[in-house]
Design goal:
With about 375 residues, the protein is an alpha/beta fold. The protein has two domains: about 230 residues, Aspartate Aminotransferase, domain 2 (3-Layer(aba) Sandwich), CATH 3.40.640; about 120 residues, Aspartate Aminotransferase, domain 1. Helix 2 runs parallel beside helix 8. The longest helix is centred in the C-terminal third of the chain and has 18 residues. The structure holds pyridoxal-5'-phosphate.
């Protein structure tokens, strides 16, 4: 059992509708990876993201894998993605026998730097080695700068997959994230803004592609009374029970975004007098769901470094985490090519994610802020 005094980074929180929907689902005996809850979750989700089609899957990683597979990514191909991301983004590339090439972040948004992307695409175009796809990531809830990225990728005719796993409820130029590439990917892992304990969603305006994804996620069965297979499929579907939980969570999405944004502003206000702390900037082009409140700590000005702070918080039973460790510094991807990397490295070396759960109380937030204040040696 999780301890009641411990403050977690981003624990699940219930909307209150889960039991009712689960009860209904259990009584209906639809205890399968298909059923009315899955259908309803998919259509309600597509409406939320304002996109044509969605298919519910067992994880966000599965959604990334299927998106790349549907774009024809295969052995020997190259796929570009940001170096500052969760490993799932890069792993989906590797599952298909393709190789990731990592691009550094823009310091202003922490997301894929469009200028570096342009350099990489131009150079690869000259060599005749254009990537098979580009994956953008909407990091910690902040949308990537989709307009210049999409324009570039159209110029070179390279399809884009938007990894919006952390960003459900965020917008870019007034439009919900997840709808900017050929495919959008979401996660309902236990720490995300809505959760089904584990799950994901693949979205697209291309209905045929989503139908194909749905088939691939169910072992790609051909039409026949027996089990006939001509393509390699996967077991990637979401349980109807979990879809019921997802629907119950989705109705409170807007409240969750508001709660997390409020948590961010409150931390910022409570800590505004401390030197050397910089909160993740919010780009003017959109609204972040502030999935996690992230900041960087300048040890020279703050008087202690990120790791000292993290350990001090841990002492007080407060869970915090460094930012994602860049992929190019992971043992798994050390050999992969990259363009830049210093921005992501700086963010990893100095960055910390603070407890940001949608249900975090002001009392607990005060405890976190006081703990941080206690680390300041300036
Ligand atoms: C959580 C996450 C994923 C993977 O989602 P799972 O549902 O855990 O497989 C992919 N990309 C990013 C950026 C994530 O944060």
């Amino acid at each position: 059992m999780p301890s009641s005094d411990r403050i977690y980074l981003s624990p699940p929180s219930l909307s209150g509708h889960e039991l009712e929907l689960l009860d209904e689902t259990l009584r209906s005996n639809w205890i399968a990876p298909l059923g009315p809850q899955v259908d309803a979750f998919e259509s309600e989700f597509a409406e939320t993201v304002r996109i044509g089609h969605a298919t519910a899957l067992s994880s966000g990683t599965a959604a990334l894998h299927l998106a790349l597979r549907l774009l024809g990514v295969g052995a020997g191909d190259v796929v570009l993605c940001p170096t500052l991301t969760f490993v799932a983004t890069a792993n989906a590339i590797s599952y298909l026998g393709a190789s990731p090439v990592f691009i550094d972040s823009d310091a202003a948004t922490w997301n894929l730097d469009p200028v570096l992307l342009e350099e990489e695409l131009a150079q690869r175009s000259r060599r005749g080695e254009l990537p098979r796809a580009v994956i953008t990531v909407d990091l910690y809830g902040q949308s990537a700068d989709h307009e210049p990225i999409l324009e570039l990728c159209e110029r070179y005719d390279v399809p884009v997959v938007e990894d919006a796993a952390e960003a459900l409820g965020s917008t870019y130029k007034q439009r919900p994230v997840g709808a900017f590439g050929r495919f959008g990917v979401f996660s309902f892992n236990g720490n995300k803004i809505i959760t089904t304990s584990g799950g994901g969603m693949l979205v697209s305006d291309n209905g045929e592609a989503i139908a194909e994804a749905r088939s691939l996620a169910a072992q790609a069965r051909d039409e026949a009374p027996h089990y006939e297979h001509s393509r390699l499929g996967y077991n990637y579907r979401l349980s109807n029970l979990l879809a019921a939980v997802g629907r119950a969570q989705l109705v409170t999405l807007e409240e969750r975004v508001e709660a997390r944004r409020k948590i961010f502003s409150r931390y910022k206000r409570l800590l505004s007098d401390l030197p050397g702390l910089e909160f993740m900037p919010e780009a003017a082009y959109g609204r972040s769901n502030r999935w996690l409140t992230c900041l960087t700590i300048d040890p020279a000005r703050f008087g202690s470094n990120r790791e000292t702070v993290r350990l001090a918080l841990e002492e007080l039973d407060i869970e915090s985490r460094p930012l994602w460790k860049p992929m190019h510094r992971q043992p798994l991807y050390r050999e992969s090519p990259r363009r830049g990397g210093a921005v992501a490295e700086g963010l990893f070396d100095h960055g910390l994610c603070l407890p940001s759960g949608s249900a975090l109380s002001e009392t607990d937030q005060d405890r976190v802020a006081e703990a941080l204040r206690g680390c300041c040696r300036a």
